[in-house]
């Protein structure tokens, strides 16, 4: 039996410094520091901010600055390793400050570079406040689109989709951060096929599924009910299912969206391909609000994130639940292990 692959640590980004990200990072270190089988992580953050936050929340976390990710190995068991990314101004929980946007963006860029270069096994991103970044000139609608740009080549962004996952369900929305009217207008057979192709490839590579099963949701109630409730399912969705099947992907649909997310239905597929944002996110957040993980599929590196926002209303109170963040760390480590194992076997 061959030895298990040796993995680089995980990189954790700063996220919005006025939100709960720093608290999640501190609590995650407390939960994982003594776990022998847990892949260690380092934070790309402002060590002064984290020290002040630990003191404010009475969390017994020592902060140690490291020069490179390699310093994580000798540090993690006794302290949280931090690659210094200074803020422009001191962060105040719950109070946004556009002057800190550059540090937030730089933290993401550094983590992506380290993950792409193999000095981090994966990046786990804390939630960002998109509007604040955009006020500072950030040109992207969100994390997913920014990471696609960072993961691209020859001036072209990577072809990515967003997956939300928990133990009971995986979902991919074909359209994401657009108004519902725009989502319907943008939906096309090619867009559905693209999302299904990326999802199937990722499930084979990172989830160990040799023949992943995709359930394709209909757009309209009852999947259009034979065209009486709209013709999009017959005209757009059904041809996409046929095209995926022609490529050898086990795809089924269009399925009535109101009956495909109960337990018995979920047992018949590995991932649900949904037509718009809320069609995907409502079921997964209902099933496991605290444990859902956001994964960007199609990147040349691994990226996961907790499936919630910055929670400005509870920032600095000590009440943030780290469950989703811990799940994101676990999923990133599992994906990294699978990729490394496959590379050794190749």
Terminal CA distance reads 15 Å
Label the overall shape: globular
Radius of gyration over all CA atoms, rounded: 21 Å
**Helix-strand category:** alpha/beta
Tally of separate helices: 11
**Strand portion, in percent?**
15-25%
What do you see in this structure?
The protein has 346 residues and is of the alpha/beta class. The chain contains eleven helices and twelve strands. It has helices at 21-32, 47-56, 101-117, 130-135, 143-150, 180-186, 189-206, 232-246, 263-266, 277-287, 323-345; strands at residues 10-12, 41-45, 63-65, 80-84, 122-124, 161-165, 170-173, 213-217, 250-255, 271-274, 293-297, 303-306. A twelve-stranded mixed beta sheet has the order 3-4-2-1-5-12-11-6-7-10-8-9, with helices on both faces. α7 packs across α8. The chain is globular. The two termini are 15 Å apart. The model has no long low-confidence stretch (mean pLDDT 93).
Write a concise keyword list for the protein shown above.
346 residues; alpha/beta; globular
Provide a short characterization of the protein structure.
Helix content is 38%, strand content 15%.
């Amino acid at each position: 039996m061959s030895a298990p692959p040796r993995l680089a640590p995980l990189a954790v980004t700063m996220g919005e410094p006025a939100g709960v990200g720093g608290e999640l990072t501190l609590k995650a270190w407390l939960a994982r520091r003594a776990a022998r089988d847990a892949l260690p992580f380092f934070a790309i953050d402002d060590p002064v901010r984290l020290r002040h936050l630990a003191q404010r929340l009475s969390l017994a976390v020592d902060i140690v600055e490291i020069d490179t990710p390699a310093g994580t190995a000798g540090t993690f068991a006794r302290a949280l390793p931090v690659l210094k990314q200074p803020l422009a101004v001191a962060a105040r929980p719950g109070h946004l400050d556009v002057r800190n946007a550059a540090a937030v963006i730089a933290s993401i860029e550094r983590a992506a570079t380290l993950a792409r270069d193999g000095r981090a096994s994966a990046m786990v991103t804390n939630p960002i406040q998109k509007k604040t970044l955009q006020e500072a000139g950030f040109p992207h609608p969100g994390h997913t689109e920014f990471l696609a740009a960072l993961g691209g080549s020859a001036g072209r962004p990577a072809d990515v989709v967003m997956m939300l996952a928990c133990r009971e369900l995986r979902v991919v929305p074909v359209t994401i951060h657009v108004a519902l009217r725009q989502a319907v207008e943008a939906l096309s057979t090619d867009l559905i096929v693209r999302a299904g192709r990326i999802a199937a490839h990722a499930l084979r590579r990172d989830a160990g599924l040799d023949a992943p099963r995709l359930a394709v949701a209909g757009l309209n109630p009852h999947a259009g009910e034979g065209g009486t409730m709209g013709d999009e399912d017959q005209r757009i969705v059904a041809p996409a299912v046929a095209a995926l099947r022609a490529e050898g992907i086990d795809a089924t649909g269009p399925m009535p969206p109101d009956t495909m997310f109960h337990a018995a239905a979920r047992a018949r597929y590995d991932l649900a391909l949904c037509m718009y944002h809320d069609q995907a996110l409502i079921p997964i957040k209902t099933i496991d609000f605290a444990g859902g993980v956001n994964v960007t599929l199609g990147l040349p590196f691994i990226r996961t994130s907790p499936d919630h926002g910055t929670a400005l209303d509870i920032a600095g109170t000590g009440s943030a639940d780290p469950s989703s963040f811990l799940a994101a760390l676990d999923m990133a480590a599992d994906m990294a292990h699978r990729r490394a194992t496959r590379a050794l076997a190749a």
